[in-house]
Amino acid sequence: MLLFVGLGNPTPDSHNNRHNIGFKIIDALNNKYSLSKQKPKFKGLLTTGNIGNKKVYAIKPLTFMNNSGICIRELIEYFKIDAQDVIVFHDDLDVDLGKIKTKFGGSSAGHNGIASIDKFIGKDYSRVRIGIGRPDPKISISDFVLMNFNEDEIEKMNLITQNIVDSISMLLDKKLELFSSTVNNK
């Protein structure tokens, strides 16, 4: 059993924000693999199903980015999912736009959604860090992550989303490095 978590903010005007790329990944997985209809549970929108021979849960926390850990803890406690079977998709300023990096554990690097998850379930889970690049120095980071992608960026993000979804079997097997290099080299 695995839990996929996509980080984002639940307001309608946040839909195309850089901070919401995690939500977009979960939506793409739901569509490609015909997971169940999203249901409001555990302070998030939950879907379930199978990808290959693995039972998966996928959730978009509705607690807003800074409180994502509350939703995740409730869900893993209820279904008795080990933190090591949690994979979180989130935006990352320190990764080039349209690229990904994967990691197990480690620092939140100032990402409030990750810091919240660390607080509620610890650091022993996997992360897919989806690059959104860095802002122009005149734009604050907090403003930048809440801005919508522009048309060129949307094209890159659609491509990386498709590559992630197409390569998900490697992530199901927790082959983080292979998954990362495959997605980035497509």
Can you describe what's shown?
This protein has helices at 21-32, 68-79, 112-121, 141-145, 151-166, 168-172, 176-185, and strands spanning 2-6, 39-41, 44-51, 54-61, 86-92, 100-104, 126-131. The chain is globular, with a radius of gyration of 15 Å. The chain is an alpha/beta fold and 186 residues long. The protein contains 7 helices and 7 strands, in the order βαβββαββαβαααα. It has one domain: Peptidyl-tRNA hydrolase (Rossmann fold, 3-Layer(aba) Sandwich). The model has no long low-confidence stretch (mean pLDDT 96). Strands 2-3-4-1-5-7-6 form a 7-stranded mixed β-sheet, with helices on both faces.
In short:
The protein is of the alpha/beta class and 186 residues long.
